[in-house]
């Protein structure tokens, strides 16, 4: 698990238009700069918003990644619900804080 | 010059971004209290506005997360979010670098604080400014308390920070207005978005407007997380304002859970005597 790097990617995409342009033009060259597992890479590429939520991505970052992929608000909320249904409860991070 | 104004309000992105999805009557009543707060703020004739907020990874990230940070920039930019998504146009907001520098130096007498000469506002400050300074002609000094992910600054440290900030404001010759902005109970951007614990919020607001320090500082992070969600960590912004106005009480002007805004929408003022 490398939740830190998944969240770092989303932080930088959200904050820096040049990172966003690189992601749109050549996502693979950008993604190789982050320490990501295969599961994380797949969830980012798809994108699988529900799995990203289960992996522990903070919603304050994830909602912008979903918006970047043109998810309407209700679809973003539903994607997280579907993710929990399919992959189980959130594994780490803020939403697992009472589990740790 | 003594602080000229103090208040608190909500900042959730849905307040502007999902305005069209809300019940019009309750939304407009809520907005009318933002406008009332703007009127009171303007009537205090401030030279600068200090906004104590809780930003959401627009500037500060897990590589270097300050517990407290005060802006010291010539100008700020915001909102960082998609303009259409938030319903607020991106723009530059004037800073007050000289005042910032003096406030930071004075706060440092009592508390450690980071400073920043570059800062992009997210909805946490952009939504309040949209209502309170819509002409963007009042210089702003942003203040951030990390309320996003633990470890979080303990509430008694937030109290000390609020006191230090007040002391710094009173020592400056400028007329300074102070606004705190945060949610009370809410579960933003998660499957529980829209849930609000109204009983928790009303109990907290009663402690806040009556400025009951011991009660305000008695919350634990675990209790807040269970009862008020991760968004509840933002009570730190309210607690900083209560500390800055210690000895005074306030008035709750508006409170109502508005689920599509994903927060118990709040507008209140505090005395500054």
Molecular structure report:
The complex is a heterodimer of chains A (100) and B (273). Chain A is mainly alpha-helical and 100 residues long. Chain A has one domain (3-96): Orthogonal Bundle (Protocatechuate 4,5-dioxygenase, Chain A), CATH 1.10.700. Chain A is built from seven helices and no strands. The longest helix of chain A has 15 residues, at 73-87. Chain A is globular, with a radius of gyration of 13 Å. The two termini of chain A are 15 Å apart. The relative contact order of chain A is 0.17. The model of chain A has no long low-confidence stretch (mean pLDDT 95). Chain B is an alpha/beta fold and 273 residues long. Chain B has one domain: Protocatechuate 4,5-dioxygenase, Chain B (3-Layer(aba) Sandwich). Chain B is built from ten helices and ten strands. In chain B, α4 packs across α6 (155-171) and α6 crosses α10. Chain B is globular and about 45 Å long. The model of chain B has no long low-confidence stretch (mean pLDDT 97). Chain A binds chain B through residues 4, 7-8, 11, 14-15, 53, 58-64, 67, 73, 76-77, 80-81, 84, 93-95, 97-98, and chain B through 14, 18, 21, 56-59, 61-63, 80-82, 85, 120, 148-150, 188-191, 193, 222, 225-226, 230.
